[in-house]
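Batch manifest, entry 17 of 40.
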Amino acid sequence: MSGSGGAPGIGSGDGSGDGAVELAERFARLARALRTAPTPEDAQERVTLYAVATVPGCDHAGISLIDRHGGVVSVASTGATARRVDQIQHEVGEGPCLGVIHDRFVCAVADLDTDDRWPGFSRRAVAETGVRGLLCFRLFVEDDVLGALTLSSATPGAFDDHAVAVGTVLAAHAALAVTDARNRRRAAELDEALRSSRDIGTALGILMARRLVTRDEAFDLLRTASRRLHRKLRDVALDVVETGTLPAAAAARAER
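Output type: structure tokens
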């Protein structure tokens, strides 16, 4: 039996014309939901929920991504079972999730109890989670491999060709959503950095003019005030921009 819940308005599809239209509508809703996700973490969580509600046979879903150091880490899941399936693969260094990241685009496992491709992983996964069927997809955008989407089921042979097709489309949405959310976060961080730089630069100019000091001396005043007040440098700079001088407590100490 496949899982349900977590993604309103999503049901099971079939290969009929009506089923195809319904499936298309679901993915349209998914695309909108992912586009409005405020953070990469939210986007990843939404993908796992939609996976369980949309891919036939799927009981659990998890996402693992390649980190900045080249390692693979679990970043989202529908629960403890999905997290443990991913963790076991990372611990033993083998499994279909790692396989799709490094060697192939899709990997289907009918029954972990009889599959002998990753004995260390399979034995532990069955014993510790009860998972029998697995379906893994590479998450990528052009040549940029992001990680993997892992779907699992307690039922052997749960994933048929239709499940593979639906999962493939879902994985494509997931990869685009993760990339888009990351880009939006980077843009926001860059904008914040630019605002901070501008505020600090303005504060330095004010202190240089008011105190007749050099740029380096003005920066030292800001840095000292930040340390003594236990506040961020940019927050102290904002005070200077708004008031025309250092915060009173820091200014008094600076005069000593």
